[in-house]
Amino acid sequence: MTETSETYEVIVIGGGAAGLSAALVLGRARRRTLVIDAGEPRNAPAAHMQGYLTRDGMPPAEFLAIGREEIARYGVELVADRAVDVTADFTVTLASGRTVRARRLVIATGLKDELPPVPGVAERFGRDVLHCPYCHGWEVRDQAFGVLATTPLSVHQALMVSQWSKDVTLFLHEVAESDLSDDDLRRLATAGVRVIPGEVEELRIEDDRLVGVRLVDGTSHDREVLFVAPRAIPQNALLERLGAELRETPFGAYPVLDETGQTTVPGVWAAGNAMGFAEQVVNAAAGGYRAGAMINGELLLTDLDATH
User: Fold this and answer.
1) Distance between CA 45 and CA 132 in Å, rounded?
2) Span 112-147, pLDDT tens digits
3) In angstroms, how far is CA 282 from the centroid of its own chain?
């Protein structure tokens, strides 16, 4: 049974760093705000988050719990549910059947990481199978790194991680040697990165830790850490339903935004990984803050102008 639609000034879809940050600003601005959180943060596999000033090393779940407490102080409502549809008048349908309506929307639905289907990768992801050297490089510095190449862009990843270890091996896996340019080969050699052709069959795990990589030809290479490049899958279905213009990138389709974070649909803002692949937690929080402030100002002027 569908419940009667409730109206809010702003609905924030997504309860990660971006969504909570937007909600915090809006709550403090005395806007009636609802956060819809499906409870699937991108960084859930990680034990700690890094690079966020004053919060370096904090577990992601703790960060979100504190954020929920903070928005509640300002009267922001949070519902554990999933937004499954949205209409042009900003009526949002939830998986529970509840419908809610807003004057403005913040889409902070993030993205999902699709991992290479190599046995051991998904099980170790966030532990000793990693994707971001800025997130985890310091913690695994000077260990024996492997990089699993799934596209020619993996060369860049191998070059990047060589900043944190001088023992780096690039396993070409799904990339042919002929796909590497002369510049790629020169840079890899200069960085001291070894290049191993051939498909990876599985990871070798002993005593609950990564100890190596086995290729389909039977050869094995000792490694302590493996960097992978997951395929980014933007969660942009709601933006598509609203008719927002998307731009294609090597990491998926993301909304076209103005300098405030507003999409091509008036009244709809995007923040966090909903606006791009490389948004770290600190960037996502900043983007959410900006969206919240811009929405509050825009609503203020709209209401003042409506009185004349």
Assistant:
1) 13
2) 999 999 999 999 999 999 999 999 999 999 999 999
3) 11
How open is the CA angle 27-93-270, to the nearest 5 degrees? 50
Burial of 53 (0-12, 13-18, 19+ CB in 10 A): exposed
The whole model's pTM is what? 0.93
Q: Is the pLDDT of residue 2 over 70?
A: no
Q: What is the largest CA-CA distance in the chain?
A: 78
Which runs of consecutive H residues, i.e. helices, occur in the chain? 17-28, 60-72, 121-124, 133-136, 154-161, 182-191, 237-242, 281-306
Q: How far apart are CA 66 and CA 53, in angstroms?
A: 16
Looking at residue 82, the DSSP 8-state letter turns out to be: -
Choice between 105 and 4, residue whose per-residue pLDDT is larger: 105
Q: pLDDT digit string (tens) for 228-240? A: 999 999 999 999 9
- Domains in the chain, ordered, with CATH? 6-113+231-306 (3.50.50.60), 116-227 (3.50.50.60)
What number of residues does the chain have? 308
Q: Is 188 helix (H, G, I), strand (E, B) or coil?
A: helix
Contact status, residue 128 vs residue 35, Cβ threshold 8 Å: no
Closest by Cα among 306, 295, 244 to 267? 295
Bridging pattern class, strands 231-234 and 111-114? antiparallel
